[in-house]
Amino acid sequence: MGAPPLTVHSSDTGPQAAGWCVADGCSSDAHACPCGYAGHPSIACTCSPGQADRYRRHISGPLLDRVDMMLELPAQTVEGFLTIDDGIEGTSLSIRRRVMSACSFRAAREVDTKATTMERANLGKKHPRVLEAQAGLTPRATLLVRRFLQHDGAGGRSHGRLVSLSRTIADLDLSMAVDEQHVAEAAGLHLKDRASWLR
Fold first, then answer.
1. pTM, whole model, 2 decimals?
2. pLDDT tens, 148-194?
3. Structural domains present in the chain
4. Among 20, 176, 166, 171, which Cα is nearest to 112's?
5. Cα separations (Å) of 92 from 15, 77, 99, 165?
6. How much is the CA Rg of the chain, to the nearest whole Å?
């Protein structure tokens, strides 16, 4: 019931989860300050700016490079999590259908591009330019990836995560090419709060 935690999800190549075309992964969460109430709509944070900054700096840049997505979740009221929303089941079903459609599209795309399971597993070991080409980045999308990384001060692992996440978003759009829109959305998920956590 504290402040909105920063929830992170990181995945690596592994067997498919039942019913979903996603790899095994892990998720964790962290509050933005020691007391846990920074950003809370009704409870005041008791931490000084210096305390919050020191708390955030415990999460290192190399660790953030390994995170696929960073999502900020708002604090939830008691009424909110006790209320039964009849629309949740329908929303979950529509999301599942979209994900499975993207899985089918990806499988067909990889047949066309002759991508193998071993190649997918070794994407992170490839030269950045090879990775960008295999992911299908347009020239403008490639420039945008580099601009985001330079601005953020991210490392090589972050490049691979950003390109892979952009490719996944393009698959959800059933797009063979990864364009600027896909990269911008991926950067918002992958790099969004990195600067604030490293200040």
1. 0.69
2. 888 877 777 788 888 989 999 999 999 999 999 999 999 888 865 55
3. 6-82 (no CATH), 87-198 (1.10.8)
4. 176
5. 22, 22, 10, 21
6. 19
Comparing C-alpha atoms, which of 8, 9, 6 is closest to residue 72?
6
What value, to the nearest 5°, has the Cα angle with vertex 134 and ends 63 and 21? 65
Mean pLDDT, the chain, as a whole number?
75
115, 131 in Cβ contact below 8 A?
no
Give the Cα separation of 152 and 67 in Å (integer): 14
- Tokens representing residue 61 in the block: 């840049």
Question: Measuring CA to CA, how many Å separate 153 from each of 56, 148, 149, 158?
Answer: 17, 8, 6, 10
- CB under 8 Å to 59, separation ≥6 — which residues? 30, 197, 198
